[in-house]
Amino acid sequence: MTQTIARVAILVPDYDAGIAFYCGRLGFELIQDTAVGDGKRWVLVRPRGATETALLIARAEGDRQNAAIGNQTGGRVGFFLFTDDFARDHAAMLAAGVEFLEMPRHEAYGTVAVFTDPFGNRWDLLQPAS
Which Pfam families does this one have (predicted)? Predict the structure, then answer.
């Protein structure tokens, strides 16, 4: 089954830490890194092998962006990282020390587990039902 999602933007207070987490610690593939002015950068990454997954990281600068981060950290933000091999990617993330808030469970729409990043955002790692 092929699953495609729109690009999801997250704001991080420390751009280098965001890249270190997603590309370094989790081993995501860096697809695009572009300066967009005013010291901001948009970075497109995806888990290796999960060709239909996209996550966009923006460097946060200023009070408005920091407020946006604060608004996201209060609870589930409903972002998904789709994977073509849930067992592989879940194991790799566990090995990297990722904190999972909910262990894998089977739902009608697929297998899902919830994890958190160092910035307080919560994500669902999901393999859609075939």
Answer: Glyoxalase (PF00903)
pTM: predicted TM-score of the whole model, two decimal places: 0.72
What are the structure tokens assigned to 31, written together?
A: 């697809």
Burial grade of 11 (CB within 10 A; 0-12, 13-18, 19 or more): buried
User: What residue numbers bound the domain in which 65 lies?
Assistant: 5-126
Cα four-point dihedral sign 127, 77, 27, 42: positive
Give per-residue pLDDT as tens, 22-43.
Answer: 898 888 888 888 887 777 788 8
**Tokens 């009070």 label which residue?**
63
What count of residues does the chain have?
130
Which H or E element spans position 86? helix 86-95
Write the CATH number for 100. Answer: 3.10.180.10
Which residue pairs from 63-67 have beta carbons closer than 8 angstroms and sit at least 24 positions apart in sequence? 65/11, 66/13
